[in-house]
Amino acid sequence: QVQLVESGGGVVQPGRSLRLSCAASGLTLRNHGIHWVRQAPGKGLEWVAFIQNDGGRENYADSVKGRFTISRDNSKNTVYLQMNSLRAEATAVYFCARDIWDSGRYYTDIWGQGTLVTVSS
Amino acid sequence: EIVLTQSPGTLSLFPGERATLSCRASQSISSNHLNWYHHKPGQAPRLLIYGASSRATGIPDRFSGSGSGTDFTLTISRLEPEDFAVYYCQHYDSSLPLTFGGGTKVEIK
Asked: Which candidate in B32, B46, B54, B92 is best for mutational testing of the A interface (most A CBs within 10 A)?
């Protein structure tokens, strides 16, 4: 079964760190960029970060720049999101999604079910 | 950065009815760069339509997308029980950030 599975979420105090993982099964990630997207309680989807297939390019939303770092280990078929100096507004379900470009069209075709991060004292 | 505005915020319909969802971009975009997703709580978002009008793999033909410039539409011809969910449009043109509309919730009337 082709899927992405996120893990690593939990309850963390403000100012602390957490690392999320996005593991692939039934597909090889090394040929694809991966995005992290989050959904705060009662809100819509918000793009967080992107990493190119070979790790050569990273992009971040302004709201997390300097505090979050995306990385990948293609030998483990896994992408990570290191989240430092966490704030309450980072509370959300975090999804990873596979990046596709196809004849000038760009989209995210496979998503995980998400992992919940709660930042609270 | 492109801002996407979806309307209505909530659509209340009976199963079997037709649903028409709108997504308006803050400036003209290529139809290649507009995508639609279906999302239910606790589940993975699912790609429905890419490039404004191409159905993703496994998506039934009751879903169709159209539009150009700043105005795009997702149409569900006959609502099935599993279609009651939140729908998001997305703009992605290789530059980042990719952006999402605020969502339209399709609920059972």
From this structure: B92
Neighbours of A47 (CB within 10 A): 22
Please give the full DSSP string across B33-75, using - where no structure is assigned: GEEEEEE-TTS--EEEEETTTEEPTT--TTEEEEEEEEEEEEE
Mutate to test the interface with A, among B98, B100, B104, B105 (most CBs of A within 10 A): B98
Which sign does the torsion angle of CA A12, A18, A22, A23 carry?
A: negative
| Binding-site residues on chain B for chain A (CB distance < 8 A) | 30, 32-33, 35, 37, 39, 42-47, 50-51, 54, 56, 88, 90, 92-94, 96-103
pLDDT tens readout for residues A59-96 = 999 999 999 999 999 999 999 999 999 999 999 999 99
Q: Is A57 exposed, middle or buried (0-12, 13-18, 19+ CB in 10 A)?
A: exposed
The alpha carbon of residue A46 is apart from the nearest alpha carbon of chain B, in Å, by 7
In 3D space, the residue among A119, A108, A109, A114 whose CA is nearest the CA of residue A64 turns out to be A119
Instruction: Count other C-beta atoms under 10 Å from residue A113's C-beta.
Output: 14
Q: What is the pLDDT of residues B70-108, one digit of tens each?
A: 999 999 999 999 999 999 999 998 888 899 999 999 999
Among candidates A4, A106, A112 on the partner chain, residue whose Cβ is nearest the Cβ of B92: A106
